[in-house]
Design brief:
About 40% of the residues lie in helices and about 20% in strands. The chain is α+β, with helices and mostly antiparallel strands. The chain folds into 2 domains: about 250 residues, Metallo-beta-lactamase, Chain A, CATH 3.60.15.10; about 80 residues, Arc Repressor Mutant, subunit A. The strands form 4 sheets. A 6-stranded mixed β-sheet has the order 8-9-10-11-12-13, with no helix packed on it. A 5-stranded mixed β-sheet has the order 1-2-3-4-5. The structure holds fe (ii) ion.
């Protein structure tokens, strides 16, 4: 979409953002883009007074209420686009696809995640498919009719063309969309308001990629930006908001950086990280999620040569190191012992 055209698109002046717990309703953002304030924000692009396209379909718990709201508004869903396959974004896609006879569409990497309970469990960084087979996550698993390719720049559905921005990092292949009237729908790439204040851990798969995507989205022309958790920003607010999101992540990374003073394994780090970030929840599944979260931070620090790993008798310890030490840079942390052992 051209910047010239975007200049002519004006966001509606918002009186107030619905708060968590407020009755679910359709709230106008621009002339054609509205949002539904469920557990997560669902963007609704109105093709006309009777037809719409959903951008993310909301948390599975909101399914009936979103359905009722669209029905009361006289809106027929003509397509559903999803930023990624997490259940609070993709959870109702299959419901609306079935109800309106629509294809299930996902980015290619996200479609792979939904191909089986085992794949979905790996996608979440879990080692047990129990949770993926039951309850809220099970609604995500199943066939996908159409995929968005890794470098696909646009997608046309129901006669409307949306820009596809490949903003990976939160998951393997999460995307953002820009509506024909210039609204960026970014899923979990950015958070705002209370959701950002209360963020306790980086629920992200590849942190370096995610930070680069946050920096990239801040430069994208738009008329407004809708964040699933939870709200929207005007274009002039976007750079500062992206910076604030990155600062929160940096603070979490720094928590782990400060913890590793001596050689520590991930099971030493997790409880200390949880204590430092006020994360409580002692269940085994929560523990596995924390391995995913802390593992992502450790991967980030390893990539930046701020720590190194040493594995002995099956136990990997993480050790602080000086990234400027030429011996570390030249040694190659990953091509080290194991690769040499195979020669
Ligand atoms: Fe997500």
């Amino acid at each position: 979409m051209s910047e010239e055209r975007l200049k002519n698109e004006k966001p509606i002046e918002l009186i107030s953002m619905p708060q968590k717990g407020d009755a679910m309703r359709l709230v106008q953002i621009t002339e054609k883009t509205w949002v539904i304030n469920g557990v997560t924000m669902t963007a609704v692009y109105k093709i006309d007074a009777h037809n719409c396209i959903l951008l993310d379909s909301g948390h599975y718990r909101d399914c009936m209420e979103i359905d009722r709201l669209l029905e009361e508004s006289g809106l027929t869903v003509r397509a559903v686009l999803s930023t990624h396959a997490h259940h609070d974004h993709f959870g109702n896609c299959r419901h609306f696809a079935k109800k309106f006879g629509l294809p299930v569409i996902l980015p290619l990497g996200e479609a792979w995640a939904c191909s089986s309970a085992e794949a979905y469990c790996l996608y979440l960084g879990l080692r047990s498919s129990f949770r993926a087979r039951s309850g809220s996550l099970a609604v995500c698993i199943g066939p996908v009719d159409q995929t968005i390719a890794f470098d696909q720049p646009t997608i046309t559905v129901a006669g409307e063309t949306f820009d596809v921005l490949h903003t990976r990092g939160h998951t393997y292949d999460n995307v953002s969309f820009r509506t024909p009237d210039g609204v960026l729908v970014v899923g979990d790439l950015l958070s705002t308001g209370d959701a950002l204040k209360k963020l306790r851990a980086p629920y992200t798969t590849v942190i370096s990629q995610d930070i680069a995507s946050k920096q990239r989205i801040a430069r994208e022309p738009c008329t407004a930006c809708v964040m699933a958790h939870r709200g929207w920003a005007r274009p002039e607010e976007l750079p500062a908001l992206a910076e604030a999101n990155i600062a929160v992540y940096e603070s979490m990374i720094d928590t782990v950086r400060q913890l590793i003073r001596d050689p520590m394994c991930i099971d030493d780090i997790i409880p200390l990280f949880c204590k430092a970030r006020n994360i409580y929840g002692p269940t085994a599944l929560h523990g596995m999620e924390m391995r995913h979260v802390v593992g992502a931070i450790l991967g980030y620090l390893l990539d930046r040569h701020e720590i190194r790993s040493d594995t002995e008798r099956g136990l990997t310890h993480f050790i602080p190191c000086d990234p400027d030490d030429p011996a570390i840079a030249n040694d190659g942390l990953f091509e080290g012992k194991e690769m040499r052992g195979r020669e």
